[in-house]
Design goal:
Layout (H helix, E strand, L loop, with lengths): L2 H4 L5 H14 L5 H18 L7 E3 L4 E3 L4 H14 L11 H10 L13 H15 L3
Antiparallel strand pairs: 1-2
Helix pairs in contact: 3-4, 4-5, 4-6
Length: 135
């Protein structure tokens, strides 16, 4: 999905429902490629980062802190997943360093996603994640 389309999602729950139905009925949808990308992405994140990949980096304390953050999932999980099949191996990808890079960028630090509608936030976070993990 292109970045401009992400910004037009509207209600996220409604979008996910309609997209799931559309993909289930789409005989052209490459389930094997998507399944491979999903498995590669989350196996790599689990073995190299664990739940830290989906927490916010606190540079002052030098650690990933707090609970799961949707923005981190959108940037790290979806960014890596978008490019996972472009790589022969994900071994050289340091997701935690890329997460630190994301959270220390001026535009994406403190208050980036606070009080922002999902489609507005995702319109920024998903393209940023794709850019971070681009081969």
């Amino acid at each position: 999905m292109e970045a401009n389309a992400i910004r037009r999602i509207g209600n996220l729950g409604d979008y996910l429902t309609s997209e799931a139905i559309r993909l289930a009925n789409d005989t052209e949808f490459d389930r094997d490629a998507e399944s491979t990308a999903f498995a590669k992405t989350f196996a790599h994140l689990n073995s190299t980062a664990g739940d830290r990949a989906f927490k916010k980096w606190n540079a002052d304390k030098g650690s990933f802190m707090g609970a799961f953050i949707n923005t981190s999932f959108e940037v790290i999980g979806m960014g890596l997943g978008y490019h996972a099949n472009d790589y022969d191996s994900l071994d050289d990808i340091d997701a935690l360093e890329l997460a630190k890079e994301f959270w220390t960028k001026e535009d994406y630090g403190k208050g980036f996603a606070t009080g922002v509608r999902a489609e507005t936030r995702m319109g920024k976070s998903i393209p940023m994640g794709r850019q971070l993990f681009e081969k």
